Amino acid sequence: MSEHTSLLSGEKKDDDNGSLRRRSFGSFSRFGPDVETSGVKPSGDSISNIPLVLEDWHRRSMSAQADEAGKTLSPHHKKGQSTGQLGLTQRNRARSFVQNIDGTMVSMTPVEMGRHELYEEVPFLAMSGLQRKEHSLSVAFSSYAAQLDTLETDEYMAATTGKHLNPEEKERRLSQMSLLLLDELEVDAITVTTPLIFAVLIASMLMFNMGYNISVMNAPEPFVFPGHSTSAWSMAVAAFCVGGPLGAVLAGQLADQRGRRGALMITTWLFILGGLVQALAPSLNIVIVGRAIIGVASGASTVLVPIYLGELAPPNLRGVLGTMTQFALVIGILVADLVGFVLANPTGWRYMFFLTSAMAFFQLLLTPFLLESPRWLLGRNANSNKARFIIKKLRGFRYDEEVETEVEHYLGASKSQSCNDSNDNSGGSSAKNPMLEMFQDKKVRLLVISTLVLQVANQFSGINAVFYYSGLFFDGVIENPLVGTTLMGAINVLATYVALLLMDKCGRRTLIMWSSAGMFVSCIVIVVSLNGYFSDMVALGAVASYVCFFEIGLGPIPWLIVAEMFEGKYVTAAMSISCQLNWACNFFVGLFFPYINKSLGAYSFGPFAIVLLLTFMFAWIYLPETQGTTPAELQAEMVKKNAGRSYHNMDIEGMTSHAPPSQDEWEQALAALEDEKVGLNISQSLSSNK
Beta-carbon neighbour count of residue 25 at 10 Å? Predict the structure, then answer.
């Protein structure tokens, strides 16, 4: 690694594009290329026109200026002093920059480098359980950059004092710098802005509405046009899954053509329309139509919400936001069960359906606060001022330079997560089909098969048979079937929280095996109980266990594993085919479970048990553990990925002195410059008099 780290002392470095001569510890600073002008005053909070005459002054940290002038230092600039005497030597260091293998230069602080790495490696998706990958990436880069910093510091000390750092000093600096950088990288995980909060709120309402409509058909079944046949009601339930795949396909097209915000608003209107059609339906056939419309909206939500929030949030918040939307989904299921206690009657069932429209209308009132995705805007126009304005609001930035750095993160990540090949022999760029390339790539073939198998298992495990027909299942098992249904909804919410804790500690393959095995045993207990060998309470407990085991593995992981197993360029394609397959399997469960239950009776969970046993065997034999989940693995990948780059002035401790200057600091800088000019004039006058 040391061969890619240059000395801070003056040196010459030749590359393919010519020679770069470094002077005064590097002429590449935060201010960009050297300019020939001087005396240009920066306008407002923009620092794009900083004069060259101030560069050397600002390369010395504010702490050094304050020490020389005997002034008090602000708390922000004192932060760099916390790591001891080594910092005194580091204060004269210039801003870090990276020299790519093609000779191009990129000026970024270590924190900015780390955020750029996170943007490239974390897909633009808000996904429950992604926190582990986000944190592991932060830890990996912090350790990686701290090693570069320690090597650079050692060379710098040797060049300036003639002494290398001893092993104890190296270890201490490595630990301190790694923790300092990790702390800076994870600030985004605890800092949110009001615009981002509104975005999460509105998106979560879509997922809440989807969850509500998953379970809303359970309680009012005896009262909705009494006398309907089993086939008619199963079609009403399954119509939700007919609209789902269509909505998922349309959502992708609408999101690209009308923007993420426009697609979300169309989805909201679909919820309003579907709810009204159901509530005002004169017959069960019209209920089926309304149910299909809501299915279209729900299918669109499963695509739009993760993408929208993933493109608005910084990388280390995408897992948290995905978890919040997952909670909104399961809470929606529970609320539908609770509402059933009040409205599941001959006169209230229409109000149950109308609540879908009411919630969507309230969401529509909040859309003025809904921001467009900056990634979508930048994809259409890299110079978009609207995208920069939105980024500034989302991140709470104060300075133009911060916004431009964030724009570079977006553009770089979008390019790395694209299947466009810009290195073909013709010298042009040829866009490839991600879906076709994914299936042709032999390296990811097992991953594709694993993804498809897990999506089939997700639905054919029978979980939606519980949520769609729990009233039918609990009839005869418990006095009031709605009580059992509500109990399952509450357990589902708690199990989602438990799953969140487990996913931070256990491997994905391990959780899939535990989940499928636990659900298999639960199915066997359910069958045995329904045959009279155990009490009905044991059957109820087995269903609760079944739901819990689903939520810790087969529920979230088939979706999460797509974001973790595939390269960024394949994530969207893999997520698309996964969504289509999941909805198709969901449709079959919703349509045929009443017939299975009627034919098999107490053995109705038998087919699900067979699927779960096969899933366990597949996971045990074939399913790979998610790659790159440990910091050590990720760090090894970073070393390999960045082997052709040279890091200059890797100064983690000094990064805090490179924050954009405030107006007060500019006044201090100009005053110091004037003092220097006055002193120079006096010296010249004295010399001429002599």
Answer: 18
Residue 542 CA: distances (Å) to CA of 52, 399, 471, 482, 538? 73, 57, 16, 17, 6
Counts for the chain of helices (H) and strands (E), in that order: 26, 5
- Listed in sequence order, the residues at least 6 apart from 108 whose beta carbon sits closer than 8 Å to its beta carbon are 96, 97, 98, 116, 405
Q: How crowded is residue 535: how many other Cβ atoms within 10 Å of its Cβ?
A: 11
d(Cα 469, Cα 546) in Å, to the nearest integer?
A: 15
Q: How far apart are CA 525 and CA 108, in angstroms?
A: 59
Cα separation, 143 vs 188, in Å, equals 19
Long-range contacts of 72-79 (CB under 8 A, 24+ apart): 76/656, 76/659, 77/656, 77/657, 79/656
Rg of the Cα trace of the chain?
30
Mean pLDDT for back-to-back runs of 10 residues, the chain (690 residues): 33 36 29 29 28 30 34 34 37 59 75 88 85 85 88 85 88 90 83 88 92 90 88 90 89 88 94 96 94 94 91 89 89 93 92 96 91 93 93 88 89 78 42 70 81 91 83 71 85 87 80 93 90 83 90 87 74 82 88 86 89 94 71 74 74 61 51 65 65
CA–CA gap between residue 543 and residue 187 (Å, rounded) = 41
Task: Compute CA distances 468 → 64, 216, 219, 345, 424, whole Å.
Answer: 68, 8, 10, 18, 51
Rounded to 5 degrees, what are φ and ψ at 519?
Answer: -70, -35
Cα separation, 510 vs 354, whole angstroms: 42
